[in-house]
Amino acid sequence: MRNVFLFSFLFILSATLCAQRPAANGERWYDTGGKQINAHGGGVLQWKGRYYWFGEDKDTVTNAALTGVSCYVSRDLRRWKKMPTALSVDTTDATSPIARGCTLERPKVIYCPLTKQFVMWFHLELKGRGYSAALAGVATARRPEGPYTFVRAERVNAGLLPVGMNQAERQRMDTLREENYAEWWTPQWRQAIADGLFLRRDLRGGQMARDMQLYVDADGTAYHIYSSEDNLTLHIAELTPDFTRHTGRYIRVAPGQQNEAPCLWRHGGWYWLLCSGCTGWAPNAARLYRAPSIWGPWEGDLGNPCRSDAPLRPASKTFLGQGTYVLTLPNGTELFMADEWHPQRPADGRYLWLPISYTADGMPRIVWERIKVPSKKITGKSCRSWHTMLNPRRMKCVVGY
């Protein structure tokens, strides 16, 4: 009995220390209950002085969705409280698009002032269908933490051509036939992709929508950014005023250049788009694009903005991570959020949060730092710029991940 009591005491003590101890990029992060934070491929919603972190609730041995979308809430970006599951998979209807065992990735949440609803979009693959469905899913809730009600999942912009596609480009696309490009990855095939080979293929049924992002511009217009055309081309699509559908206006970005994991933000008069190449779960070098308008023209690839002098966290591999979101704080600090994927033990994936700085000519830079988080708030000049947060309640500098 004494041993049982001692074990229980040590377990509780360990959980408490895990919840309070400093965390670092690439280590396990713990919530206030002492459990490892499980919010992969996610993003953060700021709402009334709180931060809501949504992500994939991963299982220990499979990347299939067995739970749904997790939610954590914090006031300071350091202490995260686990909330009930924001969007649960369907455990009663095996035919549901979000049936338990589906693939549900990269959930993002924005608030719609028109409907006073919180709107979640995510990439969805049907159970047992691999990555062939390439659907965009949407759910809504009345409270930021949910629960969210599933609305639908579908291919997007069926029958619609991108904005700005001229008659000559349309005619060129209409001549393309897949049987003429049976061999992939040749220069001719890549040019055909850029000219719209897969765009034409999916025109009637709707375009693929895989790795995705949401962005609300300064004028209140919301956009859905996603990997399309078999992950070979990015699309930026305008959402309706209720944020739950597409208006039909969209553009293609970097056609044929094979990008995923898009992160979009605005700084210094430019829209910036940070992406990853497509190498499965393995990390690769980040890619940067920019445009004076969200509708383009998009310039790039501008190279890899990552910098590191840590051999085990090379910039050429995005510090062993892959981007998922850029969080802009009330004081203007921008944090690049990334996931370090562990595909053999998905729930044990790690998080990398790093500040974005800018060179003298206005180019973004993301520099590797392990980011050891002190256990106390620090104020004044002792705040380091890369992790200086603005507490929305006390207007003081606090330290976050």
Overview of the molecule:
With 401 residues, this protein is mainly beta. Helices cover 10% and strands 36% of the residues. The chain is built from four helices and 24 strands. The protein has helices at residues 2-20, 167-174, 187-195, 197-201; strands at residues 40-47, 50-57, 68-74, 81-82, 87-88, 103-112, 117-125, 135-141, 149-154, 212-216, 222-228, 233-239, 246-253, 260-267, 270-276, 286-291, 299-300, 306-307, 322-328, 334-340, 350-358, 364-367, 388-390, 397-399. The strands form six sheets. Strands 1, 2, 3, 4 and 5 form a five-stranded antiparallel sheet that branches. It has a five-stranded mixed sheet with strand order 18-22-21-20-19, with no helix packed on it. A hairpin with a 5-residue loop joins β19 and β20 (334-340). It starts with a helix and ends with a strand. Mean pLDDT is 90; it is low at 4-20 and 373-401.
Task: Break the fold down into its secondary structure elements and pairings.
Blueprint (H helix, E strand, L loop, with lengths): L1 H19 L19 E8 L2 E8 L10 E7 L6 E2 L4 E2 L14 E10 L4 E9 L9 E7 L7 E6 L12 H8 L12 H9 L1 H5 L10 E5 L5 E7 L4 E7 L6 E8 L6 E8 L2 E7 L9 E6 L7 E2 L5 E2 L14 E7 L5 E7 L9 E9 L5 E4 L20 E3 L6 E3 L2
